[in-house]
């Protein structure tokens, strides 16, 4: 009898240890789920730091990872190009000249059903430039060439009017549909200007977050409750069999 009692005590101890182990694993999993994740920026060369330009230099033409016309890069702090315009992020900003021109990039991010996308950028105006009216645009599908998106669908846009010597932020948010032809197509970013001499661009970001989970229907709730009842009944039955043993 004593051995039998010791065996039961040992089994209870093992069961308690297993429960504690499971609780620890569950706690770690909950902490991992609760930890905030860093949002990925799907824009390449988002702050136009590539290539790095020495003070006094500049580029005209191609910007790595972007397409555009009459565009280039300037570092902060060179002669008249500084024009009291501070860079919002990093040491360089991009520009387009002669009014209505743009730069664009097709990202590697494909549209996922119900996902929420947020596109942000900052648009500047030098103190020696007339007023500019730049805009931020989010596109789905198509082909990006020379600062334009051919054959794509524009799903969001915002225009801003930066003050002299200032950068102004712009934000575009778009929620993907649950289904349709846009799902699976790649997202593109376009920074455009429609007036003035030169518009300046910096600090571009495109992030994605999962959409809200769909609410279960009544039939789905019924299936969930039925499964819970089956699980509870099976647990009670196993406990009953153990007592008989």
Keywords, separated by commas or semicolons:
2 domains, alpha+beta, 245 residues, Jelly Rolls, five-stranded antiparallel sheet, elongated
What does this structure look like?
By secondary structure, the protein is of the alpha+beta class. The chain folds into two domains: 1-35; 67-209, Sandwich (Jelly Rolls). 26% of the residues lie in helices and 34% in strands. The chain has helices at 2-34, 79-82, 218-244; strands at residues 67-68, 71-75, 92-97, 101-110, 116-125, 134-140, 143-145, 148-150, 153-159, 166-175, 186-193, 198-209. The strands form three sheets. Strands 1-4-11-6-9 form a five-stranded antiparallel sheet, with no helix packed on it. A five-stranded antiparallel sheet has the order 2-3-12-5-10, with no helix packed on it. The radius of gyration is 29 Å and the shape is elongated. The protein starts with a helix and ends with a helix. Residues 5-36 have low confidence and may be disordered.
């Amino acid at each position: 009898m004593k051995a039998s009692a010791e065996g039961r005590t040992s089994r209870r101890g093992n069961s308690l240890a297993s429960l504690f182990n499971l609780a620890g694993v569950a706690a770690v999993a909950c902490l991992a789920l609760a930890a905030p994740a860093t949002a990925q920026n799907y824009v390449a060369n988002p702050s136009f730091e590539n290539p790095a330009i020495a003070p006094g230099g500049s580029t005209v033409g191609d910007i790595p990872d972007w397409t555009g016309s009459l565009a280039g890069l300037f570092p902060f702090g060179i002669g008249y190009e500084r024009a009291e315009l501070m860079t919002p992020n990093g040491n360089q900003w991009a520009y387009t000249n002669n009014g209505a021109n743009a730069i664009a990039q097709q990202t590697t991010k494909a549209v996922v059903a119900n996902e929420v996308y947020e596109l942000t950028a900052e648009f500047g105006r030098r103190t020696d430039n007339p007023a500019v009216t730049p805009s931020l645009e989010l596109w789905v599908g198509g082909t990006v060439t020379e600062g334009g998106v051919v054959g794509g669908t524009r799903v969001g846009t915002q225009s801003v009017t930066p003050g002299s010597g200032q950068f102004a932020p712009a934000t575009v948010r778009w929620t993907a549909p649950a289904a349709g032809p846009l799902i699976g197509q790649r997202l593109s970013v376009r920074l455009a200007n429609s007036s003035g001499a030169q518009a300046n661009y910096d600090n571009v970001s495109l992030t994605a977050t999962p959409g809200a989970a769909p609410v279960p229907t009544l039939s789905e709730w019924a299936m969930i409750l039925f499964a819970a009842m089956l699980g509870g009944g099976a647990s009670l039955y196993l406990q009953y069999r153990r007592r008989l043993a």
